[in-house]
Amino acid sequence: MGGFWGSHLGLIDLMLERDGGEWRVIGSTSEARPIFRRDGKKVIAEVGDKPEVLAAAQKDHDATLAYVRTPVGRTSAPLYSYFALVADDPSVQIVSQAQTWYIRDMLKDTEHKDLPVLSAAAPFKAGGRGGADYYTDVPAGDIAIKNVADLYLYPNTVQAVVITGEQVLNWLEMSAGIFNRIAPGSIDASLINGDFPSYNFDVIDGVTYQIDLSQPPKFDKDGNLVNPQANRIRDLQFAGKAIDPGQKFVVATNNYRAGGGGHFPEIAADKVVFVAPDTNRDVIVRYILDQGTINPSADSNWKFAPLKDTSVLFDSSPKAREFLSQVKAVAIEDAGDGADGFARFRIKL
């Protein structure tokens, strides 16, 4: 693969030899050649443009830009993912709102119409290997299709599963594996496990819960039960009461998760009750068109459990500093600069 987002040119060089009436490969090399490099904050092109390629693509390029700039509605609050890994987040909230709206409508005349609908969604642009600029940031005001594509990067389709309250709990336990175990009394411990992809950090909307960082992860990255006695998810409630382990729920999600992507325990194709023809991205567009103006403000349905005299650090974009006062579920402090252009932040648990 030639890098990501068009960052590299993939080259395969084959040495061929004629052998009778056939060709055979006698040697080969391969290379992912970067088309640009960074010098501090400056981006320097390593490969020049080809005018004939630009000319050939110009008509489709212009049509694409016109399409993605088409407005679909408005947002009364900014949509950003700077704190999506440490607090309930507006960029994840809007995805869940759209999925819940869609699945309720799709199932209203089915045998599942009376089951409560939850929604699972994860942040896609949350820094990490993508760098300090790899975050969603849509200001309040008009929303265009390009902004929705920024919210939901992947061409997933909507699916719904029916699972029990116990399986909802284990779904969240698996998601909580993104956090390192934090010993009570630790000062400025590292919060995020960098090997855990953010797209597997599902937040489930429609329930409330706390995450106890003093506990080890219940499951490993492959969904294997490794710490049976561990319970990171505390005080899991539905409708203001402790969740019933045997109660059935519809959970709106995507085809990746519903098909077993991420190895979440017991979440697989046999739980699927609805397969949509629509992508999650298109559902978000339709939801915004239906609502006209959306309010994606996070409802703080999850938070960290308190740990006395304990603090943790995490990195985000320097632009995150502009939104510190908007985060209600957790008190976040500026802790200076991190590495590789990131800013560092502190949470006192």
Query: What's the average pLDDT?
Result: 93
**Mind telling me the C-alpha Rg?**
23 Å
Specify the biggest β-sheet.
5 strands, mixed
Tell me the helix content: 10-25%
- Indicate how many domains the architecture comprises: 2
Q: What is the count of helical runs?
A: 6
Distance between the termini: 42 Å
Strand % is 25-35%
CATH H-level superfamily title of the largest domain: 5'-Nucleotidase, C-terminal domain
- CATH top level assignment of the largest domain: Alpha Beta
Reported by name, the CATH topology of the largest domain is 5'-nucleotidase,  domain 2
Low-confidence segments, given as residue ranges, are none
The H/E string reads: EEEEHEEHEEEHEHEEEEEEHEHEEEEE
Lateral arrangement of strands in the main beta sheet:
12-7-16-10-17
Overall form? globular
Number of strands: 22
CATH architecture of the largest domain: Alpha-Beta Complex
Structural class: alpha+beta
Keywords:
alpha+beta; 349 residues; 4-stranded mixed sheet; 5'-nucleotidase,  domain 2; 5-stranded mixed sheet
Word description of this protein:
With 349 residues, the chain is an alpha+beta fold. The protein folds into 2 domains: 8-68, no CATH class; 73-178 and 196-298, Alpha-Beta Complex (5'-nucleotidase,  domain 2). The protein contains 6 helices and 22 strands. The chain has a 5-stranded mixed sheet with strand order 12-7-16-10-17. A 4-stranded mixed sheet has the order 11-20-22-21, with no helix packed on it. A 4-stranded mixed sheet has the order 15-14-13-19, with helices on one face. The mean pLDDT is 93.
